[in-house]
């Protein structure tokens, strides 16, 4: 089934995972620079030498975009970094991003054959290593098909939209990428903090997509400036892809949510990361944050908020989560990072009331303790409140990170576009097509909040099917 490339495979200790160096916790809580520093060449070569180059590689099946993992690792092992990155980019236009934020432990690495007995190959770290080398040397532009004269509009420059734009540009389409914000990247720039994903890394990958020929049009809110119908009937686009994400925050609906000192994680992270509030007054966005902060939620968004608050110099940061640690949806690696940064977790606790002072500012949070039921039909254990267990904790800032829903602008201005009651656009999962002809969708707007790589995977499906649709359409034209 497999062949070894290294005699070290006989040595059992060899299979320990090679950790990437990180900034020390006491240093990193005082800055917004990247925490994980990435592999050195020595690290990367040792890690790459573990790969068995399986013929029927299970890791590839675990990769939502199907990168030929053994092949890229083989080139890396032979120090042919150009060939390694070329293999990755056949399937993934955002490798330096994915190498940093993809939940590899749930995807490719989970299926790595070595993981059955020892540690799997650190595929994500290796992907980041070759992508970073390419960024340092200057990103190469692959061969692009000659222009085919067809125009496609892509709405939303998050991972889904960027993927569709890149794939169609490579096939010779003229692609215009409309983005509501002043900069491209979606959650990659406005949500995920600099210390996990530097903006310069996102910018380099967006620049690459622009160099493929994609026209970037920021500061353009589709549904207001133009409707989908206008793009198709008046602006000369033959197909549209909607990748507008899930950017509206959910709230708790408990008393006190309107007090000063309560933030949605979206607003908090946008102020801190995108508007650089951590560098006020050099940048013009202020941020009022107190000394004791509690973040409500258990996902990546909650951890990013808590760790950002810590870096803003607060004395104490808590995370309050209604289930237990094993049930947290956040990446394991980031939970560990947060623990190292002295974030205190309060598990099995749900907020019931935010209490204010006479000036209308938060002074405390009341929460109730929870216990978990037996697993239900979905296999998940439901949190149930324990009667009369309400407790109060003194805090002056509350950040709510309990989920996000789609922004309704496009849905409400596009006649005939089928949506669920939650505003998610209904698509045919095999093709990405919506209820409307020539209109496709993917990413969080079509799945609900998910991951970077799942948004990219749905973008790839839509791009292939837009290509097929437009090819068939022109073949049918007399
Ligand atoms: P988005 O990234 O949301 O991009 C949508 C874009 O569309 C935005 O730029 C928006 O401004 C634009 N837009 C919206 N409406 C319009 C309009 N009407 N006209 C024009 N433009 C519009 N996933 C991971 O895999 N790993 C992680 O570590 C991780 N951490 C996360 C941390 C945070 C704080 C958050 C919020 C999410 C995180 N996620 C993570 C989830 C992941 O980022 C998303 O699933 C992914 O970005 C979805 O991609 P998308 O392209 O569908 O949408
Ligand atoms: Fe096999 Fe793991 Fe290498 Fe994939 S990464 S080819 S599963 S050893």
User: How would you sum up the global shape?
Assistant: globular
Helical content (DSSP H or I, runs of 4+): 25-40%
Give me the side-by-side strand order of the main sheet. 3-2-1-4-16
Note the beta-strand portion. 15-25%
| Structural class determined from secondary elements | alpha/beta
Whole-angstrom Rg: 23 Å
What is the helix tally? 18
How many beta strands in the DSSP annotation? 16
- What profile does the largest beta sheet have? 5 strands, parallel
Which ions and ligands are bound to the chains?
Answer: flavin-adenine dinucleotide, iron/sulfur cluster
Chain-averaged pLDDT: 92
Q: Notable features of this structure?
A:
478 residues; single chain; five-stranded parallel beta sheet; alpha/beta; binds iron/sulfur cluster; disordered N terminus; binds flavin-adenine dinucleotide
Could you explain the architecture of this structure?
This protein is of the alpha/beta class. The protein has helices at 25-28, 41-49, 58-61, 69-77, 81-89, 95-101, 108-111, 123-137, 159-170, 187-190, 199-211, 228-233, 265-274, 300-311, 332-340, 409-413, 444-447, 452-476, and strands at 151-155, 174-178, 215-217, 239-242, 248-249, 262-264, 292-296, 316-320, 344-346, 349-356, 362-375, 381-385, 391-394, 397-400, 404-405, 439-441. Strands 3-2-1-4-16 form a 5-stranded parallel sheet. Strands 6-14-7-8-9 form a 5-stranded parallel sheet. The protein binds flavin-adenine dinucleotide and iron/sulfur cluster.
């Amino acid at each position: 089934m497999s062949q070894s490339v290294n005699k070290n495979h006989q040595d059992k200790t060899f299979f320990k995972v090679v950790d990437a160096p990180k900034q020390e916790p006491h240093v990193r809580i005082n800055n917004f620079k990247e925490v994980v520093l990435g592999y050195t060449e020595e690290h990367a070569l040792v890690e790459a030498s573990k790969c068995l180059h399986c013929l029927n590689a299970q890791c590839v099946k675990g990769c939502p975009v199907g990168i030929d993992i053994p092949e890229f690792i083989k080139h890396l092992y032979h120090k042919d970094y150009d060939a390694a990155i070329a293999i990755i980019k056949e399937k993934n236009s955002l490798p330096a991003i994915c190498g940093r934020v993809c939940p590899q432990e749930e995807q490719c690495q989970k299926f790595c054959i070595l993981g059955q007995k020892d540690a799997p190959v650190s595929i994500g770290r290796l992907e980041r290593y070759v992508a970073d080398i390419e960024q340092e040397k200057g990103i190469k532009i692959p061969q692009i098909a000659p222009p085919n004269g067809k125009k496609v509009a892509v709405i939303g420059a998050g991972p889904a939209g960027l993927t569709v734009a890149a794939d169609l540009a490579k096939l010779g389409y003229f692609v215009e990428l409309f983005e509501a914000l002043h900069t491209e990247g979606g959650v990659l720039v406005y949500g995920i903090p600099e210390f996990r994903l530097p903006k310069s890394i996102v910018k380099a990958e967006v620049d690459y997509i622009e160099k493929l020929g994609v026209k970037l049009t920021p500061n353009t809110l589709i549904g207001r400036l133009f409707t989908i119908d206008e793009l198709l009937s008046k602006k000369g686009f033959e197909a549209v892809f909607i990748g507008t994400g899930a950017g509206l925050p959910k709230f708790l609906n408990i008393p006190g949510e309107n007090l000063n000192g309560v933030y949605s994680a979206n607003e908090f992270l946008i102020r801190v990361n995108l508007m650089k509030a951590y560098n006020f007054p050099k940048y013009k966005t202020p941020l009022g944050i107190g000394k004791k902060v509690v973040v409500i939620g258990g996902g990546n968004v909650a951890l990013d908020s808590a760790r950002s608050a810590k870096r803003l110099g607060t004395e104490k940061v808590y995370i309050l989560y209604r289930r237990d640690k094993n049930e947290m949806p956040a990446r394991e690696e980031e939970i560990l990072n947060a623990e190292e940064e002295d974030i205190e977790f309060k598990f099995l606790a749900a907020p019931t009331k935010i209490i204010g002072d006479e000036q209308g500012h938060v002074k405390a949070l009341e929460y109730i303790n929870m216990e978990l039921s037996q697993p239900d039909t979905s296999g998940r254990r439901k949190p149930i409140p324990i009667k009369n267990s309400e407790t109060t904790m003194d805090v002056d800032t509350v950040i709510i990170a309990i989920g996000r829903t789609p922004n309704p602008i496009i849905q409400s201005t596009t006649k005939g576009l089928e949506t669920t009651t939650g505003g998610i656009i209904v698509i045919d999962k095999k093709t990405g097509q919506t209820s409307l002809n020539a209109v496709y969708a993917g990413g969080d707007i079509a799945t609900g909040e998910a991951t970077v790589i799942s948004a990219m995977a749905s973008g790839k499906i839509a791009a292939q099917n837009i290509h097929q649709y437009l090819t068939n359409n022109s073949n049918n034209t007399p």
